[in-house]
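Dock adenosine-5'-triphosphate; give full complex structure.
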Amino acid sequence: MALTPVVFNDDDEPTQRTVPGQAAPVDAESYTVYRPDQGAPVDEPESAAASMTWSDVTSRTRRVPLVPAWMLSADTRRATVRALANDVGYYAAFHALRGPKYGLKMAFYAPRGAWRIARRALVWAQAEEGNWKLRQHAADHNDAYTWQSLNRTRAKESKPRWMLLGAAGTAACMGGVVLELSGAVPPIGWYAAAAGAVAIAAQAGKPADRPITDRVSNTPKFTKLTAEQVRAALVSLRLAGLTDPAQVDFPSPIHRDGPGWLARVNLPLGMEAVKAIEKRAALSSALRLPVDQVWPSAGPEHAGQLDLWVGYQPASKMGKPRWSLLADNAVTSVFTEAEFASDERQRPVKTTGFARSFLVGGQPGSGKSYAGRSLALAWSLDPTVEFKIAEFKGTGDFLDFEPLCSTYVVGVDDEALRQGGAILAWALAEAERRGKRILAAKKAGLAPEGKVTPELARKPGSGLHPIVIIFDEVHELFGADKDAADAAERLIKRARALGIIVVLLTQIPDKTSLPPNITRCVTNRWCLSVQGQVENDMILGTGAYKRGITGTVYRPVDDSGWGVMTGGRSPVSILSQYPTPQQAASIIARAIALRGGKQPVGTDLPQARDLLADLVAVSGEHGQHWSVAAPALTERWPAAYPSITAEALSDMARALGVPSQGVKISGKVLKGYRRADVAEILAQRAHP
Ligand SMILES: Nc1ncnc2c1ncn2[C@@H]1O[C@H](COP(=O)(O)OP(=O)(O)OP(=O)(O)O)[C@@H](O)[C@H]1O
């Protein structure tokens, strides 16, 4: 146990006696006691390393990939080559324009350079360099013997050099004559050789501080991200606790990653990466680079790890990678990954649709509708997909999808909102129907996991083809129809295995317009530009901001279409695909062609019904059992409640506040609802 010396004087009460042989007290009144250090050691003993297993040693998790990741994808290869070609083209054009000026300068410097080269060759052939000074020294000291010996050495060295020079000169002359006589070199070749010789001579003849070519840029050009730059930039953010560049640690070397550099940084202990991510503009200032060239994001290992990716060029100048789905023969399937976006390194970002649901949120103008469109366009090339789209902005952002939709609703009026509610009711009923179909398919051995399979989805008449339901500006629906949010939540939970893909787009993430339960059950959350932590976490989930997963880094207009998406292998910064109107039209034309030119015909949407009123309608005097009410509802309104089960009905009613309890009817006590409870909720709703 470690002991810490504590010096006491007479007023203090010593707690431990002096340890013999330790340092003496500082004066007569004082004496030393030794107090054990607080707490037990918490660091692993050094020997812990010895307990490493062979699998730890051979673990591949920390291995650097054999081939750099950017070389593996055609898109990142193309982006890198494009960035290099762009630079080369610029340099070539810059110098070509100044060609005449360079010609004059070279003509001026070349004679002097030719003379310098010839003189240097002669001095070399005479082997005088170094030797002359030593001979002079010997002469100054009357040392004839040394002088002669040095001269002999020089002469010996000089002879083969003269021979070499002579041979090279003769070979060059003779070679030139032979080439000229044989006509092997066209005139342009001689001009090129002469220009090359003049350039070499001019280079040798120019003053050391006068370059022949002009400087391409006066500002320091960004060519490489260095540790010093990163350290200085992070320290300049003035984050509490980060004052010394040495506190910034690099777990792996800074390296090229796609068309840019990646610096992975461990911030000081206890500091969260989000603090630096939030200060993207300050980082851009510190690095003296445009904001859209600097991409901080959370590192993969812990909350204090920062990935700082800096592009060779700003994203706005990099151009966009070509969308693979623009190819004339592109076809997708919701069961396999389809490209719908790209990341800052220009790598394609893909997702499957099956068993997924999507929530896209962001402030007005952040690019939500286009984000939704990029997903919809990707799945439109799966000919089995049926769309149901309701957009409550009322401006027809999805109008071109109408030919692919069995239901297309646009507007913010009561009728449009009613139809939105009806889509949800229909989808819930469809989920019930699909549940039964899958059960039957499972019994027949066609759905081993109790899920829709690609084969079942394709099978005509299976009733299990994928359905994509998109609600744009869904907060309008949730705000107007209190039951819609509950219905959407149930649908998202239920739809996963049933081939129904729900996509919600919203600009107002708060408790009423985006109930947290919905956020929780959505698989893929895509947060575009948002104003603050609250909105961010409403979309991405509590704690996302703190972990550095945040849409607050994106600027409202400049970064339209940029956002961060969770739900894949790891959170990624992505830019939605943004095809031109012609490209979008061509994808949709192909999608229509893939469907044989036919618009999907969906089941007519049922009138949106009021479940509470319907429960009263099928209730007895005091209430009803769920097991009786469910078939009664199906019988009276088959389109609205197709084969609803007692459990599903009880779930739906409880979501509306109707308690499920033992109800005695005709002497039998079974789970059901009391009529009085339903009436009370209806009365409260009428007079809130
Ligand atoms: N991926 C993208 N690349 C480039 N620009 C984009 C991209 N996505 C959207 N934009 C730009 O952002 C603008 C707004 O996009 P969009 O209409 O999708 O935003 P929104 O968030 O739905 O807006 P609102 O809330 O007002 O409906 C578009 O007109 C377009 O100019």
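Observed: The first strand starts at residue 3 and ends at 8.
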